[in-house]
TrEMBL record:
Function: Involved in heme d1 biosynthesis. Catalyzes the decarboxylation of siroheme into didecarboxysiroheme.
Membership in a protein family: Belongs to the Ahb/Nir family.
Gene name as annotated: nirD
Segments forming domain Siroheme decarboxylase NirL-like HTH: 8-49
Occurrences of domain Siroheme decarboxylase AsnC-like ligand binding (ranges): 66-140
Protein name: siroheme decarboxylase
Alphabetized Gene3D superfamilies for the sequence: 3.30.70.3460
UniProt pathway: Porphyrin-containing compound metabolism
Sorted UniProt keywords: Lyase
Domain of life: Bacteria
Description of how the protein assembles with itself and partners: Probably forms a complex composed of NirD, NirL, NirG and NirH. All proteins are required for the total conversion of siroheme to didecarboxysiroheme.
Length: 152
C-alpha cells in the first residue's frame, strides 16, 4: 500500500501518545494541521487496506485484571471454524495463525484469573482441543512503534 503524506504523519506521530481527551481525533487533526474529517478518512482507508487493525490504548494487563497467552493445536481443515469459535469470546484478542503444531495463538484478558480459567474450559469444551495456557512470568518491555519517516 502506498501511504499518502497525512497517513504517514498520522502513523508516525500516533503509534504512541494517542490524545486522552473527549475529542481525540480533533486533537490529532490540530497537531497534524488538518481537519478531523481528514484524520477519520485516513484512518478508515488504512483500516480498509488492512494496514491498521485498531486505534486504542494498550493497557498494563496486570493492573486491569488477569491475562494469559494461549495456543491451540488445530487441524488445518478446522482452522477457520475453531478461530471463529475462539473469537466469540469477548475476552479474546490478538488471535493469529503460526507455523507450528500449536498454530492458533491468542491472548485472553479478564478481570480475574478464575474467569480466564472458565473461558479456557469453555474453549476446550467447544472445540474439543486442549488449550496450552502460557501465563506471563516476567514482562520485557519493547517499543512496538515503527517510524515511517520519509520512506516512499
Amino acid at each position: 500500500m502506498h501511504l499518502d503524506d497525512l497517513s504517514r504523519r498520522l502513523i508516525d506521530r500516533f503509534q504512541h501518545g494517542l490524545p486522552l481527551c473527549a475529542e481525540p481525533y480533533a486533537a490529532m487533526a490540530r497537531e497534524l494541521d488538518c481537519s478531523e474529517a481528514a484524520v477519520l478518512d485516513a484512518l478508515a482507508l488504512l483500516q480498509q487496506a488492512d494496514a491498521l487493525s485498531r486505534v486504542g490504548p494498550v493497557f498494563e494487563h496486570s493492573r486491569a485484571g488477569a491475562s494469559t497467552l494461549v495456543a491451540l493445536a488445530v487441524p488445518e481443515e478446522r482452522l477457520e471454524q475453531v478461530a471463529a469459535q475462539v473469537n466469540q469470546h469477548p475476552e479474546v484478542n490478538h488471535n493469529y495463525l503460526r507455523e507450528h503444531r500449536y498454530n492458533l495463538w491468542f491472548v485472553l484478558t479478564a478481570p480475574h484469573r478464575a474467569q480466564i480459567d472458565q473461558v479456557l474450559a469453555q474453549i476446550a469444551a467447544e472445540t474439543g482441543l486442549a488449550p496450552l495456557d502460557l501465563p506471563m512470568q516476567r514482562a520485557y518491555r519493547i517499543d512496538l512503534g515503527f517510524p515511517l519517516g520519509d520512506t516512499p
